[in-house]
Write a structure and sequence with these properties.
The protein is built from six helices and three strands, in the order αβαβααααβ. By secondary structure, it is mostly helical. The protein folds into two domains: 95 residues, no CATH class; 41 residues. Strands 2-1-3 form a three-stranded antiparallel sheet. The longest helix has 39 residues. The chain is elongated, with a radius of gyration of 21 Å.
């Protein structure tokens, strides 16, 4: 039976849901733009001291704007474009290729019954999210 991308995405969603994973995509470019803009305005208004104050205020504002934007990992997985899902699929399939299963439910049951498989797939998922999406992972306990 051919392995479907949808089945693997369902499996990864189940694993990340059980671990209560969330991810925050860092918008560092937006934060840097805000910091620079406020520093520039501060420099125009107050000269060198205004530049220093504007840079400090802009840095704090930029940091505040880009922090705490966490999303559930299953939601992120399902919102990935097909090409990105395919990348994640390719990495996950290398781990589960040897399993015998007929549908996503059976595959999920097989993997959830094996801590080793869960850990290996979790490592793939964390690696993908941190490297490809440049996101920070958080686990709710």
């Amino acid at each position: 039976m051919p392995i479907r991308v949808k089945d693997i995405m369902t499996l990864l969603c189940s694993i990340s849901e059980e671990r209560k994973m969330k991810a925050a995509v860092k918008h560092s470019a937006r934060g840097a733009l805000v910091t620079g803009a406020v520093a520039f305005v501060g420099g125009l208004v107050g000269g060198p001291p205004g530049l220093a104050v504007g840079g400090a205020v802009g840095g704090l504002l930029g940091a505040w704007m880009t922090s705490g934007q966490f999303k559930a990992v299953p939601q992120i997985i399902m919102e990935l474009p097909p090409a990105e899902q395919q990348k994640l699929f390719n990495e996950a399939v290398a781990i589960i290729r040897h399993l015998e299963w007929t549908d996503a439910m059976q595959l999920t049951a097989l993997v959830m019954g094996s801590e080793v498989l869960q850990q290996r797939l979790l490592a793939v998922l964390v690696s993908y999210i941190t490297k490809e999406l440049h996101a920070e992972i958080q686990y709710d306990d």
